[in-house]
Amino acid sequence: MAKKRILSGMRPTGPLHLGNLHGALANWVEMQDEYDCFFFIADWHALTSDYEDPGRIPQYVQHMMIDWLSVGLSPEKSTLFVQSRVPEHAELFLILSMITPVPWLERNPTYKDQIVQLSNKDLSTFGFLGYPVLQAADIIMYKAHGVPVGLDQVPHVEITREIARRFNYLYGEVFPEPQAVLTKTAKVLGWDRRKMSKSYNNAIYLSDTPEEVADKVSRFVTDPNRARRKDPGDPGVCNVFSFHRMYTDADKVAEIESDCRSAGIGCVECKKRMAASLIEALAPIYEKRRYYEERPGELQDIMRTGTERAREVARQTMAEVRAAIKI
To answer: What is the pTM of this model?
Structure first.
């Protein structure tokens, strides 16, 4: 039986961090053996908010592909490609934009949230309002069965389903309606206890050196009520301990929890242990990253092969679309 196809993408707006790893990439890696996976770097989507300064996007594209390969995405198991190198995405976006009602876009909760969060940028553009249409084109181009998302992203998939449904109603059945494939996600906080984010400048990046990781860990906020070394701590409110749960051996985690509650270990020592565990866990990623950084030709070959594979599917889909709309 053929594997069901899934599709997802990321915008290349900067280096990837541990939040991206635990929020999406770790799930993608696990899915490769179960699904026919298409993963793309959404560089056209990056223009929706960074259209005034696109010069760094090509560099971010290269870095993102290296990050993906470093954490375990495989070009043998998955189709890895760059959105802008498959121009059929733009053609389908244009066609879908002709049939998508504006109120569908205006009620998109992410649109309203981003307008507030990115108040320092002029987002009063058609591209920003219409990005869900481009997102729909990305997904249904490959007739994906599902889109791996967290619960908060389900509305994104629903508008894609509505657009596919409307196209099929107007022109005949061409597109299956994709399903949201709910994935487990871990909320990863930055060193300041806010959500780990590039915009907050509180992230540990997959490309950070061991020295940079150790330095950032040393800044982590711990139990705010533990003022002195002899004071007992509460691991339940300490972000350092949440990282121990993810990266330190289980038997050592239990020991650290006990020592924290009895003031048997200080925050400085606890951070040093956590940094050592984190650096050890990231070592395979560092090794793979160096491999691809030293072989730019091989990296380009992987991107080229993935793009050719994606375009083969996209060309077939667009032939069906043109036949359906009779243009």
So the answer is: 0.92
CA R_g for the chain: 22
Pair 111, 231 in one domain: no
Euclidean distance between CA atoms 144 and 147, whole angstroms: 7
- 170-183 mean pLDDT: 96
Token pair 């092969």 in the structure block, residue: 305
Q: Is residue 155 domain-resident?
A: yes
Read off the tokens for 322: 């043109």
Instruction: Kindly report the CATH number assigned to the domain that includes residue 224.
Output: 1.10.240.10
- The Cα–Cα gap between 101 and 267 comes to 55
Number of other CB atoms surrounding residue 287 within 10 Å:
10
Q: % helix / strand / coil in the chain, to the nearest 5?
A: 60, 10, 30
Does residue 97 form part of some domain?
A: yes
The range of the structural domain enclosing residue 125 comes to 5-187+296-325
Q: Residue 283: CB partners within 8 Å, gap ≥ 6?
A: none
164-173: long-range contacts (C-beta < 8 A, 24 or more apart)?
Answer: 164/136, 164/140, 166/99, 166/100, 167/96, 167/99, 167/324, 170/99, 171/324, 171/325, 172/324
Please report the DSSP string for 209-257 in residue order. Answer: -HHHHHHHHHT----TT--STTS---GGG-HHHHHHHHHS-HHHHHHHH
Residues 169 and 303 in one domain: yes
Q: Is the dihedral of CA 210, 215, 218, 220 positive or negative?
A: negative
Map tokens 């359906």 to a residue. 324
pLDDT tens-place string over residues 223-243: 988 888 888 899 999 999 999
126 and 49 share one domain = yes
Torsion angle, CA of 197/198/204/210, rounded to 10 degrees?
A: 180
